[in-house]
Design a protein that fits this description.
Helices cover about 40% and strands about 15% of the residues. A hairpin with a 2-residue loop joins strand 3 and strand 4. It is globular and about 45 Å long.
Length: about 160
Amino acid sequence: MSITLKINGESRQVNAEPDTPLLWVIRDELKLTGTKFGCGIAQCGACTVHMNGQAIRSCVMPVSAVAEQEITTIEGLNSKTAAAVQTAWEDLAVVQCGYCQSGQIMSATALLEKNTQPNDGDINQAMSGNICRCATYMRVRAAIKQAATDLAREV
């Protein structure tokens, strides 16, 4: 079945069964491999992308459910907020193995796009579905707070 997807600001035609997970269309059909497969049951967050600015798990989202929606992958993330998050990630050396980081960055960016001054509870809630095997959670939290501070200075 031919489905039109809006990925990273571009309309793309893909041939996929309606129930194919968005993750596999992104990775296998569109060759955008920054979005990772982790668990396949929406529990780890490695597959996080944005749909209309909201963080979603692409491993359980059928491609038919996102047709005509604005989908952003890590490759298309290019906002001022995303840049602040990525800079904070580098400044605080958040990454260890790196496997979960695209999902972590997508979730953190979605949080800061909606809430420019999150407290610890807000961060916990937004990041609760992102698992890091290396347990860099304290650095993730610090990086989100740094990105929020840096964005506030730019205003």
